[in-house]
Write a structure and sequence with these properties.
There is one protein chain. The protein has 11 helices and 14 strands. By secondary structure, the protein is an alpha/beta fold. It folds into 3 domains: 84 residues, Winged helix-like DNA-binding domain superfamily/Winged helix DNA-binding domain (Arc Repressor Mutant, subunit A), CATH 1.10.10; 107 residues, D-Maltodextrin-Binding Protein, domain 2 (3-Layer(aba) Sandwich); 99 residues, Periplasmic binding protein-like II (D-Maltodextrin-Binding Protein, domain 2, 3-Layer(aba) Sandwich), CATH 3.40.190. The strands form 4 sheets. It has a 6-stranded mixed sheet with strand order 4-3-5-13-6-14. Strand 1 and strand 2 form a beta hairpin. The longest helix is centred in the first third of the chain and has 28 residues. The two termini are 36 Å apart. 35% of the residues are buried.
């Protein structure tokens, strides 16, 4: 039976084109990589690589193995994962999402699909979080892991940024600023905004552009904790509010609108777990979020990869 670790070493060397580069990628000493390749060749009973001053070339046998090795590794890893899951009692994993699908914008569903594929047999519960409790629900262990929107200034959570996306400005469609396709942040700093009662001050400060505004503009203080409440607060007060690009489709339907906001800080989508979290099925959600983001960040208009 082939050793999956030997196959991983062979794959790295074949992809990198040299033993030296493969060893560097794996962070393994080059002599150890050479010995592993020799052992693999003995196990399969054929020469797999031809070494030269340029690096390595695959023999016909090596080419045939390479055609199958990724599938072999993935299958063996899935078997190992399944055995480990079956060997331990499993309890549900509760995943939180801030403002529903807006939490990771267009990547939210892809993250959940990838996670469900990786943890088959694990019961997944989904809980929608609000602006007020997105971090406290994880700290209080009501939620195991969550897609959130920083900033966060506590010590109990590990908050890993995934990507940043530009801000837009939400407003009523009859607001004169709605006539423009885009506006500079300096041009909207005096407009009244909606201050969200109940959320952490530092979180309010970010969305109110406090650093840029310097406390100049008036605010409408409203108990806002959800996207729906924010939409209706802007609708009834006439206030404006920076919103993430991912929420434009929800916020900006009639009688509301949104314009691109140039010069504003990015809104960051992140995945959060409790510090010291050890459950593999919980940590796997964070790993899936990172993998999906790296693969599909181009789906986010103006998105910036942060993981």
């Amino acid at each position: 039976m082939l050793d999956v670790e030997l196959l991983k070493i062979f794959l790295a060397v074949a992809e990198e084109g040299s033993i030296h580069a493969g060893a560097r990628k794996l962070m393994v000493a080059q002599p150890a990589v050479s010995r592993s390749l020799q052992k693999l060749e003995r196990e399969v009973g054929a020469q797999l690589l031809v070494r030269s001053h340029r690096g390595v070339d695959l023999t016909p046998a090596g080419g045939e193995l390479l055609a199958h090795v990724q599938d072999i590794i993935q299958r063996m890893e899935r078997v190992s994962d399944a055995v480990r899951r079956a060997a331990r009692p499993s309890r549900p994993v509760t995943v939180g999402v801030i403002a529903g699908a807006v939490s990771a914008s267009k990547l939210t569903e892809a993250i959940f699909a990838a996670y469900a594929e990786r943890v088959r047999g694990v019961e997944i519960h989904v809980q929608e979080l609000t602006f007020v409790d997105q971090f406290s629900r994880i700290e209080q262990e009501a939620v195991d892991v969550a897609l959130v929107r920083p900033p966060y200034r506590g010590e109990q959570l590990v908050v890993e940024p995934l990507f940043g996306e530009p801000l837009a400005l939400g407003c009523r469609a009859d607001n004169p600023i709605a006539r423009f396709a885009r506006v500079d942040v300096d041009g909207i700093l005096d407009l009244p905004m909606v201050e969200m009662i109940g959320v952490p001050d530092y979180w309010n400060d970010f969305w109110l552009l406090k650093q840029q505004r310097g406390g100049r503009a008036e605010v409408h203080r409203r108990p806002v904790a959800t996207m729906a409440e924010l939409r209706y607060a802007m609708m009834t007060t006439g206030g404006v509010m920076p919103i993430s690009q991912g929420s434009v489709g929800y916020i900006a339907s009639e009688p509301m609108a949104a314009v691109i906001l140039d010069g504003a800080p990015l809104s960051v989508a992140a995945v959060a777990t409790r510090r010291g979290e050890a459950r593999p099925e919980v940590l796997e959600f964070a790993a899936c979020a990172r993998r999906v983001t790296r693969k599909f960040v181009n789906r986010i208009e103006g998105g910036v990869l942060l993981t």
